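Troubleshooting log. The previous structure file for this entry was overwritten by mistake, so regenerating from the original sequence record. Sequence copied from the archived sheet and checked twice against the printout by T.R.
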Amino acid sequence: MITATELSLSDPAEGSGNETAGPRRAGFRQGWTSQRVVLLCAGVLVLVQVASRAWVLDDRWLFGDDLSLASQSMAMSLFSSEFLFEGRGGHLVPGALVLSGALIRLDPMEWWPLLAASVVLSALASLAVWRLIRVFMGDRPAMLVPLAAYLFSALNLGGFTWWSATMQTVPLQAGVAWVVADSVLYLRTGRTRYAVTAPLGLAVTLLFSERAVTIPLLALAVLALLLHVEGVATPLREVWRRTRALWLGILLVLAGWTAAFLAAVPNEEYSAVTVAQLVDTVRHFGSNLVPGLVGGPWAWTEQPGGTPMAAVPPGLFTVSVVALLALVVWTSCRRRGAPVLWLIATGYVTINVVLVGLGRSAFGFAEFLPLSYRYYPAEPVLLAIVVALLFALPARAPAPAAGRIRALLQEAAAEAGARVRSSMPGRWVGRLLVPALTVVYLAGATISTVGHVEAWEVDPARDYFTTARSELAAAGDSPLLDQAVPQDIMWGLGVPYNTTAVLFRPYTDRPQFGQVTDRLQVFDEAGNLRPAAVTPLRTVEPGPLTGCGWGVQSGETTAVGLSGPLIPLPWTVQLNYLAGRDGVMTVALDSGDPVRVPVEKGLHTVFLRLSGGGGQLTVRSDTVGLGVCIDSGVVGDVAPSS
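Regenerated output below.
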């Protein structure tokens, strides 16, 4: 039977500290004081975690996908299918995208709205996990151990240090804690509200992370485990019998989400993955997860233009594996249901890793994916669940002796164990072992956190945008031609949202971006705006008119020959012309769209951006009485002038 200080399903109190029902060790006043101390300590831990996350994020800025999301949020309707569903790499996260778009529009290309939202979401997730632990353990002092394990786990680092990960990871953690807690409370109390709030919580979480689809599996396994340790012979059947309304609601939510996912996400996102790639992904994820469970990885490698990568010391990996195996064996011998709990944890991690592998293994990055610690979103909550249940599960009763000699040996062993526990060293070991291990874990997690911050001190995106904004303010009135930002700022795959015209749109103190300018300037790798020139790939052929070159008369079109053909791409064109009056001419490549070019009376040079290909330029005078002579020109790319 479960003792008074162990896990119980019979007490209907929710999170009041009475889930672990039993007699008070002293009077009401002493018990209430002890409970208040535990609650105060837990609250302090949450505040410290929130403050530490604010400290970590204070030195961050928009990174990678954040910039792409920011530019798309400013260019698209937040509720359009283009913004919510297209080009999301197999993700269906409309809630995360709408929240991100709203925050970005609040103050475009600024970090503070995302920082504030990250801190608030982290606080909500921490409170949800605290509530879950109270459901399992009440308010006894030991509940601080699983709470600290979640709050300061290094497995969280990759999931909250940049917004594109935070917007999915942290709501998922809150959802795991909420749904599992409500499921346990419904099993324990039978109150209808939990049969409503658990599916509702799952539905909200699915709007932020498709990995929430695995939450019901974890909740089901936890409920079955609790009934198993109560002595129920068929726990899964009993879970269904006692919580049928809950699971009908969850199945309804999953059915609706599955239909939406199949309609919104193309099948080809997952079709190229092989079994060998999945196995390789699972292996690498497992080898990087284990050190994180004991506070690792301790060390990180700097990745210019990328997130820090874990550099686990070989000794730490060995120690963490030995420690984890020892914990599994020891708890399996001491706690009833612990072997099942470890199987549940292993299965849940494996399922989540397989889901990651389905979407990412085909790219051939299985060895590197787990090193960023981004792909362990639910594992910190799972860690808290496992630790809390190991405290709450009932002690394993000794097996009945088969004979007199065995009975005597068991009795002698029990007496020896009691003497050791009652001795001074035994009492100290029993009292200090768990706190000491917790301190070691927190020390390792702190080292990992500080190392992660130091490894990401260099932020090229923040420096680039800060410099570029200052340069734009002093750039003058000449229009700027659009260009892609450097690869270490935003990946080239983000076209067309990786261009200066899109990303610098929120800055009001700047010249206009256009397709034509009389002064060619370009941003360099550091964000400085520098005079530029066209590197000639093709030149304008000499024209047939002496002293004019290529003549363009009012209302007529002239084909201006190039020194060779161009493949269809965006090109920059420099034209040197002589105009008889101010006006407008239209210029195009053979296969591209035309661009209207303002011209001024006299001898001038104009630069324009054309898309297309072919072996000639088509030039037309669109102003009555405007005649233009094009003497020379070049077509190519733009580079800063030496």
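The chain has a mean pLDDT of 87. Archived copy saved in two places this time.
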